[in-house]
Structures are given as structure tokens and as C-alpha cells.
């Protein structure tokens, strides 16, 4: 056990519990500060650690899916959240679903059994100073601490609401039915796009009948209902696309699906409407459906957006969503180790960093915990390898090349391409082998 000051972990949710576990396993003393049950959030109902606020599923375990790979990487790293989930699992096909009370109790009991962990039940209103700290207070960070974080990072770098549009993989968009180009041939930096062949956007044209079919489907499709504390929080500037569709036949065509300045370079004609896709990452593997933030269910999103001809075979890397969420503009603030660029020893973890989902939050807690352990031991933290799903998520939240930074869940589009070309169905296995080998090397080198 070290004699340096205990590392402060603020928030005993999915990320904070995992971070505290990783630190303590390395013999580092931890003060784990949780405000519940003294101060509650609008969504939590218990004082238990790692409470699952909504679904009781941590997502698929399929070895051919990105969330399945993420779970296996975490197991390889001795994850507390994965062990507690295993101990409390309930049958759910290929999904890892848990009895939420047994799960929370298992997380809490395992942490309480560690002599290195001291639990403090109080709200933290300020960022800890003078020692290594991991802030993992989640999407519903208390207002006082949110204000302290905003003061530290600057108001422009802290968001309070998600309005997520779906993201699809670039390779799944039909190149014959789409074309690159920016409005009036001018990209975001004001540079003219050469010959209509480049530009910032991949444009998916629709004729009148296709547009009307899309509109009808958007209006009729099933939606998620907002939680009571989220009602009435929609901003006119980022309404769900299905609400725009409801407002009138042409509302989308005069809004996000506006065709003006987007003539098809092959025909020279202006389409009736255009759905634009914008690069979400610097490699261009992921494309965001511009202006299509949505509350439709995931099954409905697949069905409805595939009505756009170029998106008939679209592979969804992230689904759209709209909910309350406090998160940082990670690319401006964080290193891939989740340490802040401006203060050595201060780490963020969980949903606050811009990852999305229970497992992703826990995974980022794992990464931040290991990195904070290195810092507390006087070593330079090392980021997880890029070829791992944990590393790819950390890299995305610390370097995504977008001003309009939005949260991300695990998906294969985040990983660097494989060294050689191979059929799509073989890729998951190859990603998996590459990743699990890299995790083994990373751990063998002392994380
Ligand atoms: C309403 C809602 C529903 C969601 N549903 C799902 C879902 O079904 N599936 C899914 O995968 N993801 C869901 N998410 C997204 C996300 O995955 C979860 O919120 C996840 O719990 C995030 O993990 P975390 O560790 O970052 O935050 P949390 O698990 O929320 O943990 C943060 C902890 O910090 C504590 N805290 C906050 N402020 C302070 C403070 N000032 N001092 C001390 N402690 C503090 C909180 O009490 C909490 O225990 C949902 C999010 C919300 C808001």
C-alpha cells in the first residue's frame, strides 16, 4: 500500500465504482465519494452503488458485436462491473441482463471488502485539489458540482442535453445513390469543393415520392417517451426530425433536408430533398445523419432511415437519442488517458467524458482508474491501445474531429481498419483477435 494521499473518486456509479476497484487492486488507497442517498438525482431511486437507472441490460455479449468485444476486454482487465454482472445475471438470450438490486449490492459489497477503499457519503461540491482525482458523477451530476466543472473547463465545454442523430458506417452507404459535395460547392472552411467530387458532406438525394414516404414513416413510427424530468426540454433549434415531419409536408425540405445548393453533379439537377451525411471521425469511417436527431425506437430508426435510397443497406454504428446528459467537450479537454490536458492528475470518467451507455461508462472508468493509478504511483499514464474498443472509445472522446461533439457508444467503426482487406462477416473475429492480444500486451507491460 502506498503512503501518498488517497486518490479521490467522485461518484460511485458504473464508472466511479470500476475506477475505484482498479485503483484499489493495485494497492492504492481510494476515497470514494457518493452523494446518494443524502442527495438524490432525478433518476436514481436508491442509495446503492452502480444503480442502473433504466434498462437492466448491459447489452449484447455476442462475440461478433462491438459491445461484446468491449465486455471481453473488460473481463480481461479484471473488471468489477463485469464480475458483478456475472454474479447477478438473469436469462436474456445473448444480452447480459442483471437483477439490478443484486448487481448493485454485488458492486458495493466487493468494494466495501477492500481495505484500500474508504466510502464517504456526501455531495462533492468542488473539484478535489492537490491529489489525483477521478470525476465520475455521470449524466446527472449535481448542480453544484456541474457549476464547479463549468468554471474549470469553461461554459462552452460542458453540455447538459443530448440531441443525437444516428450514425452509419461510410462503407454501408450506396456510392451509386449518393454524392460528395457541400452546399453551393463551399465547405465549412469556406473552401470551394473541387468538381463536386469532394466537400464536407455525402449527399443522399430523394425524389418527391421517396421524400413523402420518409415523412409518413417518421410520423407513424414508434417513439421513446421522455422521463418526467426531461419533458418540455426540447429546443426549437434541435427538434427531433419526427417532430419536424409532423409540422408540415415541407418542413423537413425547408430545414435539414433542404436541397438548395446541392445539385447532383451527375445530372446537374436539384433533387427534391437531400439528407446530408457528415464525417463524424477524422478517418471518415462514421457518418452522421445531419439534423436527424430523433426519439424513435432503435428498430424504427433502422426501418425508417433505410427508406432513403442511399441508406437501404445502412449499418447503424450509433442510434439517435434525445435525453438529459451532462458531458464535456472531451476533444478540447481530455487526453486519451482521460486525464485533463490542463491539470495533471485530474481525470474524468463515465458518461461525463462523452461515452454513451452503461458498459461504455464502466469501461471508461476502468481506463481512467488504471491511468490514475499510474499517475498516483509517479508514472506517466499510458493510453489503452487504439486497436482495442476501450482504447478506441477513449481516443474518440479525446480527439474526435468535430466541433459539434456528441456522445458515442462502442462500435467497430471506431477501430482502425484491419491490416488487410477481408469480407465484412469475417471482420468481427479479426478485430477481436487483434484487440484481445493488444489488451494482453498492455497489461503485461504494466498497464
Ligand atoms: C435517465 C437515464 C436513463 C438511462 N438509461 C440507460 C439505459 O437504459 N442503458 C444504458 O446503457 N445507458 C443508459 N443511460 C446512460 C448511461 O449509461 C447511464 O447514465 C450510466 O449510469 C452512466 O454511468 P456513470 O458512471 O457515468 O454515471 P452514473 O452511473 O449516473 O453514476 C454517477 C454517480 O455520481 C453520483 N453523483 C453525482 N453528482 C455527485 C456529486 N456532486 N458528489 C458525489 N456524487 C455525485 C450519482 O449519485 C451517481 O451515483 C441513461 C441515462 C439516463 C440519465
Task: Record keyword descriptors for this entry.
about 450 residues, alpha/beta, FAD/NAD(P)-binding domain, 5-stranded parallel sheet, binds flavin-adenine dinucleotide
Q: How do you describe this structure in short?
A:
The chain has 447 residues and is α/β, with parallel strands linked by helices. Helices cover 30% and strands 15% of the residues.
Architecture overview:
- The protein has 447 residues and is of the alpha/beta class.
- It folds into 2 domains: 7-163 and 324-444, FAD/NAD(P)-binding domain, CATH 3.50.50.60; 167-319, Elongation Factor Tu (Ef-tu), domain 3 (Beta Barrel).
- 30% of the residues lie in helices and 15% in strands.
- It has helices at residues 14-25, 66-76, 80-87, 100-112, 143-153, 208-220, 241-247, 298-305, 330-333, 358-376, 389-399, 427-444; strands at 7-10, 30-33, 57-60, 89-90, 95-98, 117-120, 133-135, 158-164, 167-169, 179-180, 201-206, 273-279, 286-289, 316-318, 321-328, 346-348.
- The strands form 4 sheets. The chain has a 6-stranded antiparallel sheet. It has a 5-stranded parallel sheet with strand order 6-2-1-7-16, covered by helices on one side.
- Strand 12 and strand 13 (286-289) form a beta hairpin.
- Helix 6 packs across helix 7.
Amino acid at each position: 500500500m502506498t503512503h501518498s494521499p488517497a486518490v479521490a473518486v467522485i461518484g460511485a456509479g458504473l464508472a466511479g465504482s470500476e475506477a475505484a476497484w482498479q485503483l484499489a487492486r493495485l494497492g492504492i488507497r481510494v476515497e470514494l465519494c457518493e452523494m446518494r442517498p443524502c442527495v438524490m438525482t432525478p433518476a436514481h431511486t436508491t442509495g446503492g452503488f452502480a444503480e442502473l437507472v433504466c434498462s437492466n441490460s448491459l447489452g449484447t455479449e455476442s462475440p461478433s458485436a462491438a459491445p461484446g468485444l468491449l465486455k471481453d476486454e473488460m473481463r480481461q482487465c479484471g473488471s468489477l462491473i463485469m464480475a458483478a454482472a456475472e454474479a447477478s445475471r438473469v436469462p436474456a438470450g445473448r444480452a447480459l441482463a442483471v437483477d439490478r438490486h443484486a448487481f448493485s449490492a454485488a458492486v458495493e459489497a466487493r468494494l466495501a471488502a477492500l481495505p484500500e477503499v474508504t466510502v464517504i457519503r456526501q455531495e462533492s461540491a468542488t473539484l478535489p485539489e492537490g491529489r489525483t482525482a477521478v470525476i465520475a458523477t455521470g449524466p446527472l451530476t449535481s448542480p453544484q458540482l456541474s457549476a464547479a466543472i463549468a468554471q474549470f473547463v469553461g461554459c462552452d465545454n460542458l453540455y447538459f442535453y443530448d440531441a443525437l442523430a444516428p450514425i452509419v458506417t461510410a462503407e454501408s452507404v450506396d456510392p451509386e445513390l449518393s454524392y460528395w459535395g457541400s452546399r453551393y460547392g463551399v465547405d465549412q472552411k469556406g473552401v470551394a469543393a473541387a468538381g463536386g467530387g469532394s466537400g464536407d458532406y455525402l449527399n443522399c438525394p430523394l425524389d418527391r415520392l421517396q421524400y413523402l414516404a420518409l415523412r409518413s414513416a417518421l410520423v407513424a413510427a414508434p417513439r421513446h417517451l421522455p422521463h418526467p424530468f426531461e419533458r418540455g426540454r426540447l429546443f426549437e433549434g434541435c427538434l427531433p426530425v419526427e417532430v419536424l415531419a409532423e409540422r408540415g409536408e415541407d418542413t423537413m425540405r425547408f430545414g435539414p433536408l433542404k436541397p438548395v445548393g446541392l445539385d447532383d453533379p451527375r445530372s446537374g439537377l436539384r433533387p427534391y430533398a437531400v439528407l446530408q451525411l457528415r464525417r463524424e471521425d477524422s478517418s471518415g469511417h462514421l457518418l452522421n445523419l445531419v439534423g436527424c436527431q430523433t426519439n424513435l425506437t432503435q428498430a424504427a430508426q433502422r426501418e425508417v432511415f433505410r427508406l432513403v435510397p442511399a441508406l437501404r443497406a445502412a449499418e447503424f454504428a450509433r442510434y439517435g437519442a434525445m435525453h438529459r446528459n451532462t458531458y464535456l467537450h472531451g476533444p478540447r479537454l481530455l487526453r486519451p488517458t482521460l486525464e485533463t490536458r490542463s491539470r495533471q492528475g485530474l481525470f474524468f470518467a463515465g458518461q461525463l467524458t462523452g461515452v454513451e451507455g452503461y458498459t461504455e461508462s464502466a469501461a471508461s472508468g476502468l481506463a481512467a482508474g488504471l491511468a490514475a493509478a499510474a499517475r498516483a504511483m509517479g508514472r506517466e499514464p499510458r493510453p489503452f491501445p487504439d486497436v482495442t474498443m476501450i482504447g478506441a472509445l477513449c481516443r474518440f472522446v479525446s480527439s474526435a474531429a468535430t466541433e459539434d461533439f456528441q456522445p458515442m457508444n462502442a462500435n467497430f467503426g471506431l477501430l482502425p481498419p484491419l491490416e488487410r482487406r477481408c469480407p465484412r462477416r469475417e471482420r468481427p473475429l479479426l478485430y477481436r483477435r487483434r484487440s484481445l492480444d493488444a489488451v494482453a500486451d498492455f497489461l503485461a507491460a504494466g498497464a
